[in-house]
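pasting for the record
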Amino acid sequence: MVKFTAEELRRIMDLKHNIRNMSVIAHVDHGKSTLTDSLVAAAGIIAQEVAGDVRMTDTRADEAERGITIKSTGISLYYEMSDEALKSYKGERHGNEYLINLIDSPGHVDFSSEVTAALRITDGALVVVDCIEGVCVQTETVLRQALGERIRPVLTVNKMDRCFLELQVDGEEAYQTFSRVIENANVIMATYEDPLLGDCQVYPEKGTVAFSAGLHGWAFTLTNFAKMYASKFGVDETKMMERLWGENFFDPATKKWTSKNTGSATCKRGFVQFCYEPIKQIIKTCMNDQKDKLWPMLQKLGVVMKSDEKDLMAKPLMKRVMQTWLPASSALLEMMIFHLPSPATAQRYRVENLYEGPLDDVYANAIRNCDPDAPLMLYVSKMIPASDKGRFFALGVFSLER
């Protein structure tokens, strides 16, 4: 991910299938702004070392003082997907360059109007849920708002670092906790489901759920680990992803997969054995400064550390190792690109949310088809009072004629 010029932006904007307009939504203090920092850092806008601490999208002084987001803030990111990642992409392809227009919205109930304004001008949402606190009241509120606007969600189970550092949760307990979080989110999505959107529920084995630690800048989906293990087990990535979630257990002693725990001490759930415990082992080794064990482990994983990073110790070392091994930017942005709709797809079912005129006139058809040759249209999502009374600044999105 790199910074880009206005000319490059216009070029990418012509590729309407390669644009993702999305919001980050969550209950207050579940880590939206911190997680957004990790994505911004990958663009080179802030240093990776301070990602999670800067809260770049909190631009007001009162936001910094209160430690919460008050106003929605937008930022555009350019992402160039690797050829390796593109092999897993089953959508319509138009090159490997993508523009992600991301809006970080408030989580506090008092600022729900800001969430509505953000959702109205986006097509997808990254729902952030604290892995320990789970789905809270405002999580349901923002999800209901999103589905009411026909916004397709993906989910990230955030603050994973709490499981490893703060609470020392064992693998099976962690799995059951994550599973409940996802199940509770899916209940809400099913409750407010819109027929035009179809099934909006999220599934780790389908790549629509990520697991993240926004504060430390790392994240993964089951896709990451399926790629590591698919060749070892002689199956394709899709099959391996299915084995890494749900009632799938593996016993290294017998080298067999089963749908039930056999009771053997070596038989463990696929997610626990191949995802959770390797991360736990890496983090423990870093925190204990056992570098003689760490370097061979990283070599097996193909993780290369810079010479100056090898002098880091404890938490700074752990943070850097995890960012290098499982960068949040790649996991989250690729999940958004793979599973959130482009404007060309979304406007077919969102046009009646955005346009109050006849749905068969030239303007409605232009919106529905994302027609670049149609008349200029402006959608005002927010009115901001000006300093002189009785006047407002209109904030919105517009289409461009060629």
